[in-house]
Design goal:
This protein is an alpha+beta fold. The chain folds into 3 domains: 169 residues, no CATH class; 164 residues, no CATH class; 114 residues, Jelly Rolls, CATH 2.60.120. Strands 1, 4, 5, 6, 7, 8, 9 and 10 form an 8-stranded antiparallel β-sheet that branches. The N terminus is likely disordered.
């Protein structure tokens, strides 16, 4: 997901980009792991494009296969149905005109980049400006098409409101059920969209920001640095260590990739370089997990599917003196490596919704209290007699296996590792987690076998991208009795690139 505009967060969270750094804290007293009291949920970041070329395109005016958008449903249920019915033909005509003007600058290949130089041409801007908005802006649908869709001339395909979705995904439990309100049926994806809009106008939790949106050369000025190891260590302990989800800009480069993050785990050991005399170096390995921006606009089931979550592993060193972390510490990775796989630019903790006037669509956000009480809570089964109940979460068991073996190049022989699926009862959920270093992960084929059944867990995916470090959920073993051995085999079936299988982890629940 290449998400929101470069300056959207600056406007939405004005005054917090250069919040003062947290004071020194006792290294040993800080929690080294934690998770939110409820899971962050995968969602869609509601890009400015994504709708069909029918005039109803962009943001929550994206139309589903049944040819209705969340924006239109909202208008019908929240008092704008008559206005929308009268204005819809003109809204569609405007959208088709605006889309046609922009199409001249869209890539023929279908890539998600507009030709920004093309958009500057006077004939393009004139054609777009000539599209008449001869309808009132008193419906949610009109607002979305004009301000979050094709009506926004300079908007690229990847622009969106990921900061709103990420905030909503850690502030509210996941909508999982259809809800009928004022005779209109809302799907979980619709409700997620409305919460995401509300989440674009929030207050931060106290002390809820570390890092900056700075992408220039290295600087000693703390106001011009990305998240430092000390800030990361303290922040994760303060919030996730206390059960509160946070938002991570997991892309270290110029773009913003806000992801709702609901757990972290850090292990540290004495040792390392770079500390002054009298200071103790602590080298730490950390992992944090975020919910992905899958296009799940029609989905919502309340189950934590491993394929919808990504875990990043990082290493850093901090210096400790008299029990306190001193200095900012050092990230132990190549700063020139893939910006999509390094430490975050910034991390923040959403506090509460504002009045909605500063949201991406105030007409939605100003009804956030009603959205929460009438739609979100019943859909999530929170405090509602009509919303059903939530299924108790089963404890997830994890079995880690160190492999550390080179994978033979261009050979079906591969490497095999075994993990014990302990316990009694039947397997409810199952995931295979792979940590493989490889220069062409599209060469890798991995299968998992348990109880006489075999599942593909990595099938030559990812092309030329380096490495595999993810969990893949599968249902092949569901219902089988626990207490057996799971065998995973990984082979390199391509020629020329080499790699090593570092580690395996199986995660499962039993009932």
């Amino acid at each position: 997901m290449k998400t929101t505009l470069r300056n959207v967060l600056v406007a939405a969270l004005a005054g917090v980009l250069f919040a003062p750094a947290a004071s020194a804290q006792n290294f040993n007293a800080l929690p080294k792991s934690g998770k939110a009291t409820f899971d962050a949920w995968p969602g869609y970041f509601w890009s400015y494009f994504g709708g069909k070329p029918s005039g109803i395109a962009g943001g929550l005016a994206y139309r589903y296969a049944d040819n209705v958008s969340p924006a239109e449903l909202f208008d019908k249920a929240f008092g704008n149905g008559t206005k929308l019915a009268a204005a819809l033909p003109k809204i569609q005509a405007f959208g088709e005109c605006a889309l046609k003007a922009k199409q001249a600058c869209m890539p023929a290949s279908g890539a998600n980049r507009m030709n920004t130089e093309c958009l500057k041409k006077s004939e393009i801007r004139s054609a777009h400006a000539a599209c008449k908005k001869d309808f009132g802006m008193d419906t949610v649908t009109a607002h979305e098409v004009v301000n979050q869709g094709v009506g926004k001339l300079d908007a690229d395909f990847w622009w969106g409101i990921c900061h709103g979705w990420a905030a909503a995904a850690v502030l509210f439990k996941e909508p999982v059920k259809n809800v009928v309100h004022n005779g209109v049926t809302f799907r979980p994806g619709d409700i997620k969209g409305f919460l995401s809009v509300a989440g674009t106008d929030i207050d931060l939790a106290p002390g809820g920001w570390v890092g900056t949106r700075y992408d220039g050369p290295s600087s000693g000025d703390a106001a011009l640095q990305d998240v430092t190891p000390r800030q990361y260590h303290n922040f994760m302990a303060k919030f996730l260590g206390a059960g509160k989800g946070v938002v991570v800009d997991r892309y270290t480069g110029a773009e913003v990739w806000n992801q709702p993050t609901d757990r972290f785990e850090t292990t540290c050991a004495a040792g390392g370089a770079g500390c002054a005399a009298g200071e103790q170096a602590q080298t730490c390995r950390t992992a944090f997990t975020w919910a992905e921006d899958h296009n799940v606009t029609d989905l919502g089931n309340g189950n934590r599917t491993s394929s919808a979550y990504t875990t990043r592993n990082l290493n850093y060193t901090v210096c400790v003196k008299d029990g306190l972390i001193t200095g900012e510490g050092k990230w132990n990775h190549d700063p020139n490596a893939d910006k999509n796989a390094l430490h975050p630019d910034f991390i923040w903790a959403p506090g509460s919704l504002r009045d909605g006037s500063g949201a991406s669509n105030p007409m939605i956000a100003m009804k956030s209290a009603e959205i929460i009480s009438k739609l979100a809570n019943p859909s999530a089964g929170v405090g509602s007699s009509t919303g059903g109940t939530t299924t108790p979460t089963l404890p997830e068991k994890k079995v880690a296996v160190t492999v550390n073996k080179a994978i033979p190049d261009n050979s079906a022989t591969g490497v095999t590792a075994t993990a014990t699926v302990a316990g009694t009862g039947k397997i409810k959920t199952y995931a295979t987690c792979l940590n493989i270093t490889h220069t062409y992960r599209g060469d890798i084929l991995c299968t998992a076998t348990y109880g006489g059944k075999t599942a593909n867990v990595w099938n030559k995916e990812g092309g030329s991208t380096d490495n595999i470090n993810t969990c893949i959920s599968h249902t092949s073993f569901n219902g089988l009795a626990a207490g057996g051995a799971a065998t995973v085999k990984c082979s390199d079936v391509g020629k020329g690139d080499i790699g090593k299988w570092v580690g395996l982890e199986v995660r499962y629940t039993v009932q």
